[in-house]
Structures are given as structure tokens and as C-alpha cells.
Amino acid sequence: MKKRIAVYPGSFDPVTNGHIDIIRRACTFFDEVIVAVLANRSKTPIFTVEERLELLRQSIKGIKGARVDSFSGLLVEYMRKNDIRVAVRGLRAVSDLEYEFQLAHTNRTLNPDMETIFLMPGVNYVYLTSSTVREVASHGSMLSTYVPVPVAKALRRKFGGAQ
Ligand code: ADP
Fold it and tell me: Residues 126, 46: contact at Cβ < 8 Å?
């Protein structure tokens, strides 16, 4: 039987426990979930693509079926090249809907054969964003309960500050 493969694309700058929650959920009904870091030149990330990949690698250890990759350019092209039909995105609250729908409909226009599916994270992660994690860390504090251990360590190395 053909493997059921999905891609979970995003910036992951850095990966949070909210992302991990979505990866775990997706892995329960896909054989393989490729967490794909978008190398987007228009943003100024705090971690390079290589650093984000390494943090993801360390953070998804033990999640069966999850693996990491990176891509640049259009998601639909990456999916076409790798013969993947399904993209997973996380929906935290209604506030995510507008942006996510816009993205999903644009992708569908570009490739009608692909589907975007949305997963809800556990309630603890509903208000968690990578940008909040970055902001707090840049002021020398840490949302340790909301990021994987390797990410907390990397943020401390970058910004110093409280444990
Ligand atoms: P992007 O820059 O593409 O939005 P992110 O890395 O911020 O990339 O997010 C990737 C995906 O994960 C998006 O669908 C986003 O809504 C979702 N996501 C981000 N944070 C969380 C969270 N705390 N819980 C669930 N999904 C999340």
C-alpha cells in the first residue's frame, strides 16, 4: 500500500511545543510527516535554516514517522516534486483562520490536487507563537514550559538570561 505522506510547512523560528503537538497528532494518521522549514528570504529569522532544522531534529526524536526537510520557493512546487498531496497546518484560534484560508486557497488555485488539513493543538498551546517565544527570550527570560529543551538551550546561548 502507498505510504500516506503529509508535509507540515512553516518557519519554525523556533519550533515550539505547539508545533510538536501538531506533529504528534499528524503522525497518528500519516505514515510520514515531513516538517518542512521554509527558507524565506523576506523575513529576518533569529535562527538560520540549518539551526532550525537541527533544533527540529532534536525535538522530534522519538516521534515515529516525523522527519525534517527544508525548501525555498512555493510549497506547491515542493509538494509536486516530492509527490505529496496533503499539507498540514495548525489552527490555534479564529484569528488564524483568515491568513490560513488565504494561504490554503492560494495553494489550491496553484495546484487543485493538493489539500490543506487543519489540526487544533491542545488548549495549552492556543496562545503560543514563535514570535512571543523570541520576544521573551530576547529580553533574557524564557518560556521553558512551551519550548522543547534543545530550543530553550539554544535561546539561552543566543540571548543569555534566566534559566
Ligand atoms: P508560518 O510562518 O508559516 O506561520 P509558523 O512556524 O509560525 O510558520 O507556523 C507553522 C504552522 O504551525 C502554522 O499553520 C501555524 O498556524 C501553526 N502553529 C504555530 N504555532 C502553533 C501552536 N502553538 N499550536 C498549533 N499550531 C501552531
Answer: no
